[in-house]
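Lecture 7 notes: from sequence to structure.

We start with a single chain of 101 residues. Read the sequence below before looking at the structure.
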Amino acid sequence: MFIYNVTIKVSWAIHDAWLKWMTGTHMPDVMATGCFARNQLVKLLDTEEEEGPTYAAQYYAESFGDYERYINEHSSRLREDGYNKWGDNFIAFRSIMEIVN
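Now the structure, written as tokens:
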């Protein structure tokens, strides 16, 4: 199994609205692609929050092919939705990880 991890630093100026959008719209839209078996949103602790908190959205793919299908067919549109809505009020870093144990 693979974890597609998106770490996001969110500005305090949009935090409450962004969190509602993330859990109520964006993450369900990502799951609706059928590329992931489950997801979770976690908040990083022990990080500098002066400019805003940091979260990690994690999506679990059964195969690397499912992850690739998401990247090739869906990610551009869904990323664009976020940038169109929130502009430069967040920073995102993406990684793919394989569960080994």
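The mean pLDDT is 96. Keep this in mind for problem set 3.
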